[in-house]
Amino acid sequence: MRRRMRAKPLTDGLVGRLRQAIAEGRFRGGRLPGERALTAEFGVSRGTVRAALAELERDGLVVPVHGRGTLLREGAKLPVAATGRIGVISRWFNELKPGGAAAAGGYYGELLRGLTAAAAAFGQDLLVYGPGGANRLDEIAGSGVGGLLLVAVTDPDVLRRAARTGLPAVLVDHVTDVVQIDSVDIDSVGGAAAAVGHLYGLGHRDIAYIDWSQRELSRPRFDGYRRGLELSGLSYRSDLVATGFSTEDGGAAAMLQLLRLQPRPTAVFVFSDTMARGAVRAALAAGVRIPEDLSVLGFGDLPVATSEAPHLSTMRIDVAAMGAAAVRRLAERIRRPGSEPVRVLIPATLTERQTCRALEG
After folding, report:
1. Average pLDDT for residues 308-315, to the nearest whole number?
2. Is this model's pTM higher than 0.85 or not?
3. What is 80-185+319-346's CATH number?
4. Residue % of the chain over a pLDDT of 70
5. Are 80-185+319-346 and 188-318 the same fold in CATH?
6. Domain range list for the chain
7. Burial class for 105, CB neighbours closer than 10 Å (0-12, 13-18, 19+)
8. Does the structure show a pLDDT above 50 at 277?
9. Is CATH 1.10.3720.10 what the domain over 2-72 is classified as, yes or no?
10. What integer pLDDT is reported at residue 3 of this predicted model?
């Protein structure tokens, strides 16, 4: 079973590398090397080579000819992904050229690393355009990229202009009804509802929430918090919600606001691990014991969750899986441009550590 689960990613990666080689004209005489040569060159099994060649044949790029091998189909048009480059637009990233280092920190830094690793498996380079990229869509479209990954893009005008470029595109870490577009997003609603349900199961009834002040991006998690309260039979109270910047300082300031409540909450769910780390520090500095006096549950399972004691209990997101899903969806969109838009949700699962405990009494 384990071997079969690995086969698909290996095949997808080889297909991407073969497409790039075809686009670069590396196969002289219009013929691909034999199975044995491809196995040696790319370091994969013959079964993976055969599966990749079969996929190229289904896409109309090659044709097997008895006695001659696998030939490039005359007049075949390569999908635009064969350019070997994917454009990434996000105000949360700094500019990044092929071979560069990820320049964003925290959650978006982890996401960029996940996207980069997934793209490499498909034989693609990322061209990352930071805060100014949204104003350069025509330029980016003319640069030879095969498709676009729009990361946390919420501006309706930018989404419409991206659609008008005609390039295949996937919206990452957000969903929209403004344009018809594939999306890969976190199941923030389900994850947040499960977080509240976990705290309720520990006996907590006054469950507060620290939210990111960017409500256009944080709305699904806020909605999940309210849904979790409803499913647990608890009433929503606006005084139990504090907002702040998506930083440790922002989480600390929001926590101090909640600690002024009388009676104060016994548990706090936090939008992100980064904010949760600051919230825990603020509570400890105020003489509140974690988790004896207050349970804190984060979201993300980023490195900051275990950067210092106490280690955060959190709702884990597989950021690498999110990056891989986004790149796979873009590859599928390039191969089948006329198909209906697809929404992919990445689940959030509980990771218990040191900042939550059952309420005594």
Report:
1. 97
2. no
3. 3.40.50.2300
4. 88
5. yes
6. 2-72, 80-185+319-346, 188-318
7. middle
8. yes
9. no
10. 35
